[in-house]
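call fold(seq) -> tokens
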Amino acid sequence: MTVLWCILSAIALLIIIVLLLRVGVLVTLTDTLTVLLQIGPVAVPLYPAVEKKEKPTPKKAKPAAETTPKGKKKLSLDITRQDVQEALKAVWQALEGVFRRIGRRVRITPCEVSVVVGGPWPDKVAEQYGLVSAAVWTVMPRLEQLIHIRDPYIHLDVDFNAPSTNVEGKLGLYLRVGDLLAIAFAAAKPLLKFYFPFRRRQKARQAATAAQAGKTMTNNT
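ret:
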């Protein structure tokens, strides 16, 4: 009995560790753009991708064109206007659930962005700086209310001697595995709630169509 409890405790501990594991993306922009996928302590480069040497593969003969066997009918979608409306409603509910849970669970750290507006025309540089500044200080307060951002650092400046605008920074977006499962469940619930009744209605319509066809053939004979 003690061994069984030890095994169950080890499994429960492993599940907790997996659910608390952080998964995210770290984007770094300096002279080049670097994107890393981070799974716990492991970092996998996404961009630029690591080049792999491809082994030469033998040429394969082109497959013969597939022909549709006679007697088989093409698959037709038995969807009504009501099905389309309910499907759109289910998709919208799924998106709402995802956005609600993303706002509560997403962590952004680090958040370091530096924008130095420059260019050959001083009047356009000043205009662009005003637009960038207004956009940042309009969006950031609202974003901090919706998403957990740890120690955000936003630097805006203007350089009339710079040939162009320079953007640098580091941005990390993270979720825990448990959060991903909660988001997936929020998306799947309304979709499954739509799918099963839809399949029942579809089967009922197909059965009624088959019965009507059989009845018509009997009357003709």
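Residues 177-220 form the longest helix (44 residues).
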